[in-house]
Design the sequence.
């Protein structure tokens, strides 16, 4: 306890007070007479006192000890008898655990009390219970959604048959409407299931250039049809990267789809990829020439179920960021309301391999 004043002098490493202040609990250390040797900042803050002023005073002067003058005070009992206490209620706010401190001969030299803010613990406990309930609810929803998918596939199959049978009838349009509705339910379920069970990425070494290229190929047809031109450029060499290709494809498709949806009258999607040296990140930009996003919506775009589209699910960007984060990266939106929307994906290069001619 000699260095409890916090002066490190020429000694290297943290002082004991720094250690005590780093503990997320209230700590009180007293000598065998009950005089305070150390009190950490958290406990001082909880009690509304100055930690330095408290040192040297008797612990009974602390606000939390006043009014409990009896001999049954747990800290006094510990100092007298060595009895230890585990998480006993201490005032309406705290619970306390107390240990006797002994010298090499086993004699009591003092005691240490660890205080927990039970209000905080109760909140934490309730948060855990709530999270568990939500997890169960999530699982039930996922099972239900999965069960809906099979009969829905049957409905879709029969609707397609009807569509063929009604080909020349004016009622054929109604079947198309029904098919579109079924497809929409399917999209919602698929997105939801991906959300409920974000798979652990199965990474393997791939070429970022090739993954981006093949995702662009998938949308190119549809994009062209809508009058959208897609340009892709890589700055310098891209080292091979450890990726779950299928999941990352999904991310790119979600972003490309959003870009296409933002430009119903055509436009341009520019994809750029660069391995940044200073940040050790891959930076993949997808920029469109649509209307962009209002500044205050930029951060909301990643919230689950946030959508401004009549038929949107609001899960595309949320799931995409989840996937990218599972890869140790992140996503953000750099917006310029007059120049469209730029979605940026960051991936760590730490897992990348030395370019083996894959890129
Ligand atoms: N390229 C973009 N341009 C403008 N707004 C966009 C773009 N990408 C996403 N957004 C906004 O972010 C919202 C959330 O996107 P997303 O999570 O993919 O869900 P959804 O596409 O189903 O609406 C969209 O509804 C839209 O308002
Ligand atoms: Mg989307």
Sequence:
């Amino acid at each position: 306890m000699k260095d409890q004043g916090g002066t490190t002098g020429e000694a290297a490493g943290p002082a004991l007070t720094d250690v005590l202040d780093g503990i997320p609990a209230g700590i009180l250390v007293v000598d065998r007479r009950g005089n305070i040797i150390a009190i950490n900042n958290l406990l001082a803050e909880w009690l509304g006192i100055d930690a330095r002023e408290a040192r040297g005073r008797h612990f009974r002067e602390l606000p939390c000890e006043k009014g409990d003058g009896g001999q049954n005070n747990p800290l006094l009992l510990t100092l007298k008898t060595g009895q230890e206490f585990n998480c006993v209620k201490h005032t309406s706010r705290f619970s306390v655990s107390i240990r006797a401190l002994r010298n090499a001969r086993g004699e009591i030299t003092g005691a240490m009390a660890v205080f927990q803010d039970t209000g905080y613990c109760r909140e934490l406990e309730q948060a855990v219970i709530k999270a568990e309930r939500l997890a169960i609810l999530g699982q039930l929803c996922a099972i239900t959604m999965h069960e809906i998918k099979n009969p829905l596939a049957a409905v879709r199959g029969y609707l397609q048959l009807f569509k063929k049978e009604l080909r020349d009838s004016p009622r054929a349009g109604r079947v198309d409407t029904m098919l579109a509705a079924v497809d929409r339910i399917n999209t919602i379920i698929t997105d939801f299931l991906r959300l409920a069970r974000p798979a652990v990425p199965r990474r393997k070494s791939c070429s970022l250039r090739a993954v981006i290229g093949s995702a662009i190929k998938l949308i190119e047809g549809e994009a062209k049809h809508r009058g959208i031109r897609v340009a892709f450029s890589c700055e310098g060499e891209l080292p091979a990267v450890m990726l779950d290709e299928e999941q990352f494809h999904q991310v790119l498709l979600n972003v490309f789809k959003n870009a296409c949806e933002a430009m119903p009258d055509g436009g341009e999607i520019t994809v750029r990829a660069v391995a940044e040296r200073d940040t050790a990140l891959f930076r993949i930009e997808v920029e469109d020439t649509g209307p962009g996003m209002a500044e205050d919506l930029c951060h909301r775009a990643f919230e689950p179920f946030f959508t401004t589209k009549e038929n949107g699910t609001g899960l595309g960007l949320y799931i995409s960021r989840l996937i990218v984060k599972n890869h140790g990266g992140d996503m953000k939106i750099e917006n310029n309301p007059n120049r469209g929307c730029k979605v940026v994906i960051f991936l760590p290069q730490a897992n990348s391999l030395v370019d083996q001619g894959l890129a």
